[in-house]
Amino acid sequence: MKFRSLQDNLRRTLQQRISAGELTGLRLAEQTGFRQAHISNFLNRKRSLSMDGMDRVLNMQRLSVLDLLDPSEVNKRSSLLAPSKDEFDNVALVESDIAATQPLIMSMNVREIQKFKRSFLRKLRSDLHGKRRGWERFVAIKANGESMSMYPRILPGAVVLIDRHYNSVVPYRRGETNIYAVQTKEGCKLRYVEVAGKNLVLRPHNTTYPVQVVTLQADESPQECIVGRICYVGMEV
């Protein structure tokens, strides 16, 4: 929400109080120390208030910025999913670029809600490196056509659950290779990952697709490029 919208909502609130007989423009001017003409011009959209002026009006009218927020805008930007009342947890399904870059998932970015057994999610081990402790741990994406590089382990359209608190290159299970979501310049890719010096080697399962090498910046660690470990793949048939 922009500052101008906050001012419009403040005007609306003040005008409602004036219409209800709870306030007058003169009284508001006396409370805030502004000239009455200044308040009148503000209420009639002929001028704006400075941030300091907004604070003075809010303080005298016992309002806060939260009172001026549009509820629909707040809901769109809310990052809290409604808690589940059964043995399942809600996980947001989002676009892959959102999964790769957004620590908290806003409601406006949620395409669907996926249900996963709470007991399943809780038993998954994390292995987190870097400053990602405050990130929502689990997000889901839908695999696109590019995921044919991991055929038959992942098919286009499959729901892919990403554990963003597992960005270690250590195998989750002995003798098995992890599949990761990795952020590259071309977008988020699903691959096996190896570290070779200052390079990430992204290997496909489908050998008709090429191996890709991602060169890390001098101060960049492999874990910064790894979005997370793929811990579930499911598809409707």
Description of the structure:
The chain has helices at residues 3-19, 25-32, 36-43, 51-60, 71-77, 96-101, 118-123, 222-225, and strands spanning 88-93, 112-117, 138-142, 159-163, 179-184, 187-196, 199-203, 212-215, 226-234. The protein is α+β, with helices and mostly antiparallel strands and 237 residues long. The protein folds into 2 domains: 3-69, 434 Repressor (Amino-terminal Domain) (Orthogonal Bundle); 80-234, Umud Fragment, subunit A (Ribbon). A hairpin with a 2-residue loop joins β5 (179-184) and β6. α2 packs across α3 (36-43).
CATH class of the largest domain: Mainly Beta
Summarize the helix and strand pattern as letters.
HHHHHEHEHEEEEEEHE
CATH topology heading of the largest domain: Umud Fragment, subunit A
**Kindly state the mean pLDDT as a whole number?**
89
**Number of beta-strand segments:** 9
Provide a count of the helices: 8
Shape: elongated
Largest sheet, order of strands side by side?
3-4-9-5-6-7-8
- State the separation between the terminal residues, measured CA to CA: 42 Å
Number of separate structural domains: 2
Give the biggest beta sheet.
Answer: 7 strands, antiparallel
Strand content: 15-25%
The CATH superfamily of the largest domain turns out to be Umud Fragment, subunit A
* CATH 2nd-level architecture of the largest domain: Ribbon
Helix content: 25-40%
Poorly predicted runs are none
**Rg from alpha-carbon coordinates:** 26 Å
Task: Give me the secondary-structure category.
Answer: alpha+beta
Give short descriptive properties of this protein.
single chain; 237 residues; alpha+beta; 434 Repressor (Amino-terminal Domain); Umud Fragment, subunit A; 7-stranded antiparallel β-sheet; two-stranded antiparallel ribbon; 28% helix; elongated
